[in-house]
Amino acid sequence: MDKVFIEGLEVDTLIGAYDWERGIRQCLRLDLTFSWDIRPAAAGDDLSKALDYAAVYQHVQAFAVVAKFELVETFAERLAASLLEAFGMPTLRLRVTKPGANAAAQAVGVEIERSRT
After folding, report:
1. What are residue 99's phi and psi, to 5 degrees?
2. Which of 45, 70, 94, 116 is deepest in the core (most CB within 10 A)?
3. For residues 5 and 34, what is the distance between their CA atoms, to the nearest angstrom?
4. Structure confidence by residue, pLDDT tens digits, 89-111
5. Which of 3, 49, 68, 98 is catalytic?
6. Which pTM value belongs to this model?
7. What value does the mean pLDDT take over residues 70-77?
8. pLDDT confidence tier of residue 23, bands split at 50, 70 and 90
9. What is the mean pLDDT of the chain?
10. 98 catalytic residue (yes or no)
11. Apex CA 70: angle with CA 69 and CA 74, to 5°?
């Protein structure tokens, strides 16, 4: 299966378990890789058969605006489920990085792979 990816997508969201985090929006950096058959789009140079990056970004941004999770793990799980349902890709890999979450590290985060069931 072919892969389509979006790398380094940044969104601001309410994320964190500590009291001081509950009142501020923080940046998350997302790397997304989707299984997607690009042959139909490539055969006819047809945008309507391609995975629409702009629509994916808008979906992720809308999700991040309303999200209010304590854990990056929860953000990742719920976003992955939402993307699979909305776009119908067979599988996705999602890496969520929270820069500045630990002073000794550049970033911390999770990486998950999910598929439609």
Report:
1. -65, 145
2. 94
3. 6
4. 999 999 999 997 777 888 899 99
5. 98
6. 0.93
7. 97
8. confident
9. 94
10. yes
11. 60
Which residues have C-beta within 8 Å of that of residue 75, sequence separation ≥ 6? Answer: 13, 15, 28, 67, 69, 96
Helix 53-66 to helix 72-87 angle (10° resolution) is 140
- Output phi, psi for 57, to 5 deg: -60, -45
Q: Which CATH architecture has domain 3-115?
A: 2-Layer Sandwich (3.30)
Alpha carbons 42 and 47: distance in angstroms, whole number: 9
Q: Where are the domains of the chain?
A: 3-115
Residue 11: Cβ-neighbour burial (10 angstroms; 0-12, 13-18, 19+): buried
Distance CA 109, CA 42 (A): 34
Distance CA 117, CA 97 (A): 26
Cα angle: 85, vertex 89, 93; to 5 degrees:
95
